[in-house]
Every structure is written in C-alpha cells, then in structure tokens.
Amino acid sequence: MTSATRPYGTRGTRGSVGSQGGTGPGASDGQEAAAILERARVSVDPELRAAVDALPGPLRRIARYHFGWEHADGTPATGNAGKAIRPALVLAAAAALGGPAARAAAVRAAAAVELVHNFTLLHDDVMDRDATRRHRPTVWSVFGDADAILAGDALQALALGMLAEDPHPASTAAVARVAACVVELCAGQQVDTAMERRDPGEVALDEVLAMAEAKTGALIGCACAVGALYAGAAEEDVDALDAFGREAGLAFQLIDDVIGIWGDPRHTGKPAGADLAVRKKSLPVVAALSSGTQAAVELAALYAAPYEPADLDRTALAVEQAGGRAWAQDQAADRMSRAMSELARAIPDPESAGGLLSLAEFVTRRSN
User: Fold this and answer.
1) Contact 340/350 with Cβ under 8 angstroms?
2) CA–CA distance, 47 with 49 (Å, rounded to integer)
3) Domain holding 89: CATH number?
4) How many other C-beta atoms can be found within 10 angstroms of the C-beta atom of residue 100?
5) Residue 267, Cα to own-chain centre: how many angstroms?
6) Can you tell me the distance from the alpha carbon of 132 to that of 278, in angstroms, rounded to the nearest whole number?
7) 160: helix, coil or strand?
8) What are the pLDDT digits (tens) for 297-355?
9) Residue 133 domain-assigned?
10) Where is this region: Disordered (predicted)?
11) pTM value?
C-alpha cells in the first residue's frame, strides 16, 4: 500500500508504543523524524540565539547554559539543546496545511513555542528538585533557585514578545493561544505539586490524566495549532490540530513516565528510576496503585516508606507486576489512535500529513 492511500495509524503496532526492543516503526521512519527535527533545529536556532542574546548579561549567561551553548563559566559548549519536538510540530503543521511558504513564515513562532517550553523546564526543575537535565546539572543546581526562576520568566516574556512583534497576520491569534496555554500549563503544574503532597492512595487515575494533559498535551497541541494558524487554516482545522497535539502529547507523557522508571540513564541523562526515587505519582505508578493487586499493596508500602536505593529494583518490579507499565503503553496506543482521528479531520491525506505523523510516532515509540 502506498503512502498516498495508506490509512492513518498503520505504521507500527499497538504493542510497540513506548516499548524498548518492540516492533515499532522501521529505521526509515526514525530517520524521517530525525531529519525533520534536524531541519527544525537549523531553522529555529538562529531565532532562539538572537532572542537569548538580547537578554541582560547575567540572564543571558544562565539561558545560554540552559540551552547547552555555554558551560557554567561562560566558555562555549556544544551541548544538547533538546530534541526540538515542539518547534518541529509548529513547522510541520504549517507545511502540511500551507506548504513551504507557510513553514518559512512560521519559524519565529516555532522559536517562541520552544522558548515557552524551556521556561517550563527551568521552573519544573526548581519545583521538582531535579538535579540533572540533558546530561548536565540543572540551572537551579548551578546558579540557584532565584536565577533559574528569573531566567524562566525572561524566556516566557521573550516568547510572547517575539509573537507580538511578528508582522504575520496570524501573530495576534498566536499570542492569545500561547498565553492561554501558559495559564493551562501553570494550572497543571499547580495540580501536580499539590498532588505530590497527598497520600498515594488518595490520588485518582483520572486526576493524573487530566493533569498530564494540561502539563504536556496543552503545549504540544498549542504548537500544532500555531502552525495551522500560520498556514491560514480554517478554525475547525486549527482546533483539530490542537486536539491531535493534545492526544499525542498525552501519549508522549505516558511514555515519558515509563522511561522515568525503566529508561537507560545513558540515553535519558537522568539516574535510573529517578521518578521512583522521589516518589513521583507518575501515570504508571498511579495505575499500579489502583489495580487492587497484591503488587499494588507492596508498592503502596514502599511508597509510604523513606526512599532506600536498595529498594529501587523492587519498587520498579512492583509497578510492573501491578500492571502499571502495560497500562501506560496501552493507554499511549489508545491516545495515539485518537490523535490520528483528529489529524485526519484536518488533513485527510496521510501523505500531506507525513511530517506530523512521523513526529507523533517518534515521540511515542522512543525508549529514551
């Protein structure tokens, strides 16, 4: 079956979503996504650097460290600035609905979305006390909480300013959508931090799913919608792409939570079982705790006790035996199926939506 006639959602299998060593897409699919991401980096990086370089000296230094462009002492670095998934989605959505000209016009908007994403990372690392990101110490652990928070605030302001100053006709609608998305992100983070203070047995699975959609799905949906806006798409198509991104984003979060427990530190840049060590109520953990199994009882006892490194493997095994890992992978596949339905509403031809399909499959069939 050719790509022009292939129905949505037939690349890979349900069991491959988020599995390590599963039967996901072939090498060509991964290479296609990698090429899309690299093109997005090349397009967006000059805009990002110009925006960051406009910051006052101390904030500029902190931001450049965060993006991996400098070491803590200010000397040049060639670190990893992230996968560029969100700007790539902006550009892919613009290209799918408006062609190369729309993609070129959306580069500044794509950079703004990436700045918003990095603002959330800086703040999340402070609140979660994560010591490592992208294989290096987090900003707060190097420069302190206050500087990390202020740098994040500055990145958010830069993002909104870039959109407000963009002469493109879609920029006004994009500013409003991004600003609303930031409020939703903050609301999701507030729920997340409040949830961490509650007893694990008091947290319902539906609550965690709703929180994950707000924290992760909202910005991925916003990225797709902004790309559609810059393509001049109809309102219903913009909304469909937002819904596509939200569902794909929730699938992304489900797999990210799986990786947070079972990911390889050589690829993730974080210690093995990092989420379990901080007793995070991630989606696989809450699903496991809700299973009513004997393994769930053991997991609840482990989560109620102070963390002991010797118990890490036992805790991960309890999550798996209680069905948390399998549930998360099945849910990710289900959310991807919903995402494909939304994408088909806006772009009926899978070939035209090829970039968005490749990116969605990349983020939900990764192992790091």
Assistant:
1) no
2) 6
3) 1.10.600.10
4) 9
5) 16
6) 13
7) helix
8) 999 999 999 999 999 999 999 999 999 999 999 999 999 999 999 999 999 999 999 99
9) yes
10) 1-31
11) 0.90
